Amino acid sequence: MTYAKRQSRKLGWRFVVVAVLALFLVLALVRNLFMDLYYIPSESMEPLLLTGDRVLVSRTAFANAPIQRGDVVVFDGRGSFTPWKSGAGPVADGIVAAGQWLGVVPNDNIYVKRVLGVAGDTVKCCSAEGLLEINGVPVTESYLFPGDAPSDLVFEVTVPQGKLWLMGDHRSVSLDSRSLLGAPGGGLISTDKVIGAPVANIWPPARIHAIHGDQR
């Protein structure tokens, strides 16, 4: 009986280990191909997204439709918004990466911004009325953080093929394309750096809601 119990316990633990590994692999597959999770680390997209929000990001949001002006996108900022840098070491980097994967630690390389210019657009600030101009047409931006101006920085840029001009909704605190005008690339982000679009806020509980296309 003792031997049988030991064998039963071993089989039980093996089943648990296999089940956990299978669940992890399925979750990793889903997150790499379909839906991912990101932690919002700053105020740059208020009032749509708040610091500490955890958002689900659809990796297939732009699979069948091009990115358009007004879309909110999640993108990899390495080499543009974030300078290339060496890690802190394999152990420390592994711990940080695990926290980022779980959505409890912000990823300094990942950004969320609104698309204000796509290929061929000329984006300018500001018009005589103090509004952002896109292709010579003043734009009323209802998503702006209350009290913010469209931009305190005067600029004019024409977006080339394969690039995007991105700005935060909370313009007065946002690190975005405007901040990189003098840097290599001129603040423009490659479309192939886009990971997807936020589709739902899942944390904290009081802020659980879908993020609809008209909000993005």
From TrEMBL:
Residue ranges of the TM segments: 12-34
Annotated Gene Ontology MF terms? signal peptidase activity
Q: Superkingdom, according to UniProt?
A: Bacteria
Question: How does it sit in the bilayer?
Answer: Single-pass type II membrane protein
The compartments listed are: Cell membrane; Membrane
- Record flagged with keyword Kinase: no
Which keywords are on file for this protein? Answer: Hydrolase, Membrane, Protease, Transmembrane, Transmembrane helix
User: What phylogenetic lineage does the species belong to?
Assistant: Bacteria, Bacillati, Actinomycetota, Actinomycetes, Micrococcales
The protein depicted here goes by the name: Signal peptidase I
Matches recorded under Gene3D superfamilies:
Umud Fragment, subunit A
Similarity comment text for this entry:
Belongs to the peptidase S26 family.
Could you tell me which PANTHER family the record lists for this protein?
CHLOROPLAST PROCESSING PEPTIDASE (PTHR43390:SF1), SIGNAL PEPTIDASE I (PTHR43390)
